[in-house]
């Protein structure tokens, strides 16, 4: 069996790693991948280029390389309809259609969808005009949340603690075009109190398979302070998602999405991510929907997965998803190492030292997943194992904002945190930054 994983981040490294472990799999191609995916057994990076249509390049590669299934990692190709294009060409692709992917591609679409189908979420209004947006901020007060309507790589959300910060966010998005087309419209919404959790499912159009629960850490600095990022670390499971909360999420959030998409004639298939705020009463509110596996949640979740990811995707494509998967009972925790300047800027070409040897990195209890990495000789990411011949070639360098996710599996969250921190502390590159408190909500909850 041959599999194509689309994407270049830590999520895609984790997906490729899980797929390659399946004995039925011969080759896992990753487009474009990173230095980590290039080094994985049975994995190979490929760069797919087509001057006319990126989708055409994917389809051509699949046909020429006998690809049995495509797993789409990031949101951008889903929003532009890669799954629709593959299906039309007779290629099996795991992910939602472009219609369904609007849940992530447009905050306005998502909020209107939730309002129509009574899915609990924060009160909101959408704006394209600066003065109207600021007038609404004056009316609502702070703290308040400002979101770019479109895709902004997880960074188009500003939690404004003051009116002045909210004004600045609106100016950045609507007046100064900080996020390009993604910020040409903003959604301003109520600030919700509570504890966040990530609830990710596999959906085959009808059947729902909940993944293990997790909690991401969006803020850049320890103590959940600083600017929002794509995610500085995550752990699984999330104790805040009790069985009662889990049941509420399934009945109040996930099932209504499945039912509504079916009613609209667009069955939802693929991963669905509900970013939640759980209030003190244990009631869930949707902060955002993502139309793919979360990053960095994927890394600790897949460390715990004992079922075959390949089998689960195959069952999803066939419309026969099981109700449950098999999980390691131990928790897993991942710490993101980011490059200097992240999230405002990122750095490329800084040599990374201290990475575990491949045999150590593939230890069942610790794994360093690559995200923004490349080999020193080829920052274009066209990394074939045959190219890695000299010591300089073997040097791994930074190639983006989030560089690595050091992930550990242990008996407790505290043990997993310490194991991950030990490996993280041994890895270095210019300007490396990471949080040392990933998992603190779970650890505090246990100590209370």
TrEMBL record:
Keywords: ATP-binding, Ligase, Nucleotide-binding, Purine biosynthesis. One of its GO terms (molecular function) is phosphoribosylamine-glycine ligase activity. It comes from the Bacteria. Residues 111-318 form the ATP-grasp domain. SMART domains: GARS_A, GARS_C. Signal peptide: none annotated. It catalyses: 5-phospho-beta-D-ribosylamine + glycine + ATP = N(1)-(5-phospho-beta-D-ribosyl)glycinamide + ADP + phosphate + H(+). Its cofactor is Mg(2+); Mn(2+). HAMAP family: GARS. Belongs to the GARS family. This is Phosphoribosylamine--glycine ligase.
